[in-house]
Amino acid sequence: xxxxxxxxFQVIGDPxxxxxxxxxxxxSLTINSLADNFDMSRPAVSKHIKILxxxxxxxxxxxxxxRYCTLKKDGFEELQAWLAYFDAFWASKLKKLETIxxxxxxx
Amino acid sequence: xxxxxxxxFQVIGDPxxxxxxxxxxxxSLTINSLADNFDMSRPAVSKHIKILxxxxxxxxxxxxxxRYCTLKKDGFEELQAWLAYFDAFWASKLKKLETIxxxxxxx
DNA sequence: TATTTGCGTAACTCAGAAGTTACATATACA
DNA sequence: TGTATATGTAACTTCTGAGTTACGCAAATA
Lengths: 107, 107
Prior knowledge:
Chains A, B: It comes from Mucilaginibacter pocheonensis. Chains A, B: GO terms for molecular function: DNA binding. Chains A, B: InterPro entries: ArsR-like_HTH, HTH_ArsR_DNA-bd_dom, WH-like_DNA-bd_sf, WH_DNA-bd_sf. The structure is a homodimer of 107-residue chains. Chain A has a domain of 68 residues: Winged helix-like DNA-binding domain superfamily/Winged helix DNA-binding domain (Arc Repressor Mutant, subunit A), CATH 1.10.10.10. Helix content of chain A is 60%, strand content 13%. The first copy, chain A, is built from 5 helices and 3 strands. The radius of gyration of chain A is 21 Å and the shape is elongated. At the A-B interface, α2 and α5 of A face α2 and α5 of B. Chain A binds a DNA duplex (30 and 30 nucleotides) through α4.
């Protein structure tokens, strides 16, 4: 099971990984308790977790032989920054429209 | 060139498509003028455009034999809604922390 | 100490996204 | 009307992400 190096966008492109993040938003979970929520094998889940961890979406705390996964901000921030760029685009587009409308009013 | 049906997250998972959205944030462009910015063939760009269009990230205006692509809000809003959910998670996590700290103060 | 449990990794298969070339079509232009 | 331009689509190939099974190891437990 080769470990692909994916950017934050590719990471959340997978529906299973998004579901994992959703589950972790309710509770910190171990690999096995996470796997209970999926049809795929545990090693498959394990791989997704590694991808989420590498991309900064979760942190992992080892307690004995168990690994507790918890959401981490870093990964999300990269996505927010990207969306914020386009937010600015819509805002400036709206401003341009306002300017046009205001200039037309005197006519 | 089969047209895969991708959700908004998978759509922005591709670096080329993200670059296209960036280019379109500066100006509306035709398929060919977009293709000038990439190493891939024009049909490949054409396919990406179709995917972006289907997912609601761009609108297309036909002018003669040219097709002008413009950013469209719809696709972005799906992503924002998803991120907003996790924003709420961080906010509530912070609130819980505050509560804990406040409860400890009287001790 | 022997066994069970929780997890990681290696090796492999498979499906599909992403690219290509070749061709068809419609519009603009000489 | 003939040609060049802008684009879409079909058929095909390639690559890799996502899944599997088999195995190994460390920690818990009997």
